[in-house]
Design goal:
Elements lengths: L3 H8 L3 H8 L7 H14 L4 H9 L4 E6 L4 H16 L3 E6 L7 H9 L5 E4 L17 E5 L9 E5 L1 H14 L5 E4 L6 H16 L9 E2 L8 H5 L7 E4 L2 H13 L6 E5 L13 E4 L2 H17 L8 E4 L2 E3 L14
Parallel strand pairs: 1-2, 1-3, 3-4, 4-5, 5-11, 6-7, 6-8, 8-9, 9-10
Antiparallel strand pairs: 10-12
Helix pairs in contact: 1-2, 1-3, 5-11, 7-8
Length: 330
Amino acid sequence: MSTMRDVARVAGVSAKTVSRVMNNDRYVSDDVRARVLQAVDELQYVPNVMARSFRSGQDAAIGVAVPAVTGFFGYVVEAVERIARDRGVAMYLTCLGEDPDGEQAAVEALLARNVVGLLLAPVADDQSYLKPWRERTSMVFLDRRPRKLSAAYVVHDDNGGTRLAITHLLDHGHRRIAFAGDSITVPTTARRRTTYELTLFDGGVGMDPFLVSWGAHRVPVVPRLLALPDPPTAIFSANPSCSMPIVRQLHAAGRSEIVVLGFGDFPMADALTPPVSVVEQDPTELGNQAAQRLFRRIDEPDKRLPRQVVLPVTLVRRGCCQRARMGPAA
């Protein structure tokens, strides 16, 4: 069976150029593309992911398991699907929901389809069940690091983004900063909660446990916070699913002077009054990076590759972080 190096030799180009042509890179010239494709045809070259599937009896397909297929993870899945389609690889998708007890069964059902690779955003706190599968299936975790399993992952900088947000609020005079998250069992939320406390401490502010709320994506948390003897002047939200209901609750209570700063952008955040500043993530880039790394591991299973990739985030200031006020607005 011909290899990529054979194609490169016949076409008179580098193996990297062959890879770019096979991945439909638009920056390859027409002449080079034609030479490579002619060599591919002459040698009857099959890309590695397909060749591996022929040798192992596995499908030329990857599996993707994420908590949801809308919002943030919807963009991630779209990016992965585009890269897989460009490579002529099918994609099986499963939605894990929020049930950690159901993760193993759902993921193993996906792996039972003989996929050559797996992209996983876990919801459980233990992925050791995947150890028997690693020998035959390449794996990359996305958005969330694996637990009790050594594996490659691509994540956003949760710690750096949270530090940016809390420091920004402290610099604007806020000292009563609440934290609102979905669940401490979600790894990204747990990291943001820890960094929230550490950044307050570094700023000379002790954390008040009464300012921490969980389940903010499902139950109203603003009424309890406003009822405190010393309510917050700002709320840091761990993700968009918490940010949107918090903003609605504050507007309903007539307390729009309380600042909301969220991790992750959400629709209409820039059009609200006041607009909501956010720590901006790029779910499309997350999906691109995770898929590219998965296919590289499939193509080069014996090569030592970087295990972790941490993507940068940015603080988008939209003018909502006014100076802290003492007491409710008049």
